[in-house]
Hints:
- By secondary structure, this protein is of the alpha/beta class.
- It has two domains: 30-145 and 267-298, Rossmann fold; 147-266 and 300-327, Rossmann fold (3-Layer(aba) Sandwich), CATH 3.40.50.
- Helix content is 41%, strand content 18%.
- It contains 13 helices and twelve strands.
- The protein has helices spanning 3-23, 46-56, 79-88, 100-109, 150-158, 176-191, 204-212, 228-232, 234-243, 253-257, 268-283, 305-310, 317-322; strands at residues 30-35, 66-71, 93-97, 115-119, 139-143, 167-171, 196-200, 221-224, 247-250, 262-266, 299-304, 325-327.
- The strands form two sheets. A seven-stranded mixed beta sheet has the order 7-6-8-9-10-11-12, with helices on both faces.
- Helix 2 runs parallel beside helix 11 and helix 3 packs across helix 4.
- 45% of the residues are buried.
Amino acid sequence: MKRREFITLLGSGAVAWPIAAHAQQPTMPVIGYLNATSPETTNPAYLPAFRQGLAETGFVEGQNVTIEYRWADSHFDRLPMLAADLARRQVNVIAATGGPPAAVAAKAATTTIPIVFTSGADPVQAGLVASLSRPGGNITGMSLFYTELGEKRLQLLRELMPKNDLIAFLVNPKFSEGQAQLKDVPAAARRIAQQLRILNASSSNEIEAAFASLGPDMPDGLLVASDPLFYSERGRIVGLASDHALSAMYFDRAFVDLGGLMSYGTDAKEMYRQAGIYAARILKGEKPADLPVIQPSKFELAINLKTAKAQGINVPLQVQQLADVIIE
């Protein structure tokens, strides 16, 4: 071989070595974070809790994991498109948060990419998993148990008022889990001889219209069904309940923090932390089918006594003693 040819080969090889070494470096895994609401309307504690779960299991955003965010801004019809986009990008895990619609959209978008959901609905009834202990397929997650607690919320609300007072029930009939609550809550009301008036609302404008329709036959209490739309509109709903002097029971403490009277539900912040842990475990090689759906072990009653005083509502001592959180 001539000296010039040898030098040329040596030079090209020297250039190729660092390129090959660079190509062999592992790429950073990507989590697709799909949420039904928006950064402005979601609870500000949830995403940090998810990141905390990731960090506890060895993954820190920007250091050894990337998170791509997709927000539906409470336009649930956008969720299938957003989920499909994450699937096309071949993210390593999809975290479907903010309610059942995100989980349903993610499951429809892919049968191969692992999915971790947070859902207030029964994940078996919603068709997300085969069973809680053995989810099967590519999906598992956290059941926040929101929709199953309607009867308990109704009972707690009844403690604030005489037996025959009218209670309004705000529900979204176009939400799949709203249909289940439309059966369960009226049935529970009949069992305790409670008068119930249904207020249907499937959009922001319809929420306003529902309260405007109350008229002279004003209820004394309000029970708000578990729903991603109502959660994103929680400030408006709390304000309307206050304007109409309604003793209101909600499904999440975020309503009470904004001035709502009472809530009874899951410690959702903890469930988001657990979702982060599950996402990290999947990144480390575990399969969703082998990770049972986590159910809440703690339920939280929150009462805003400041709101009660402003509305002239007497919260019985026995109800206050049940509370986990009291805002004075």
